Amino acid sequence: MANNAAPLEKLIEEFAKFPGIGRKGATRMAYQVLSMSDEDAQSLAQAIQDAHTRLHRCPVCQNFTEQEICPICAGAKRDKSVICVVEKPRDVQAFERTREYHGMYHVLHGLISPMDGVGAEQLSVKELLARLKDGTVQEVIMAMNPTVEGEATAMYLAKLIKPLGIRTTRLAYGLPVGSSLEYTDETTLYRALAGRDEL
């Protein structure tokens, strides 16, 4: 640790700030950067700088964009009556890859987590509620991960949205294809049972 040159140690420390990256992973990444050509290292640094300075939150859905309004919000063919609420910008990409969802999105940039000091005021809840005022939106889909924080956030938002007369739904949670019933936890089995469809 102490025997690393100062610039290398600083690089390791910066990589270690990423979620899920420990000291070992950060050290590997730092050495990978050192093995790059000057041109590639400059290109990486420029890509980080550009992402940081040129991207901003879309004023409508809060997803990251380079344009004034993101291409999804600006898209004429999107169904403006449905909003899918997600935790992170990456979740939008996951839904878009399915090519099955054609509605709008809203990115919260986190979940309510009192243990981590994150309340509704730190998320883009005000912006979501503002979008629901003009009567265009008929359904809001809660698409958070099935965690304690995800459930708490979905319930909190549903309580705020229900009085507006807008249908609030959540993603069906069930058994993944190819899984075995005997190894499935009780909550997943219950959800799969509750969300069953007719054949």
Describe the structure in brief.
Helix content is 42%, strand content 13%. It has helices at 6-16, 23-34, 38-54, 71-74, 89-98, 125-131, 148-161, 186-194, and strands at residues 56-57, 64-65, 79-86, 103-107, 139-142, 167-170.
Largest sheet: 4 strands, parallel
Which architecture of the largest domain would the CATH scheme give at its second level? Answer: 3-Layer(aba) Sandwich
Q: Return the CATH class of the largest domain.
A: Alpha Beta
Indicate the CATH topology of the largest domain: Dna Topoisomerase Vi A Subunit, Chain: A, domain 2
The strand order across the widest sheet is 4-3-5-6
- How far do the termini sit from each other? 60 Å
Tally of discrete structural domains = 2
Estimate the global geometry from the Cα principal axes: globular
Radius of gyration: 21 Å
**Could you spell the SSE succession in H and E letters?**
HHHEEHEHEHEHEH
- Strand-pairing-aware structural class: alpha/beta
pLDDT below 50 for ≥5 consecutive residues: which ranges? none
Can you count the beta strands?
A: 6
H/I helix tally: 8
Oligomerization: single chain
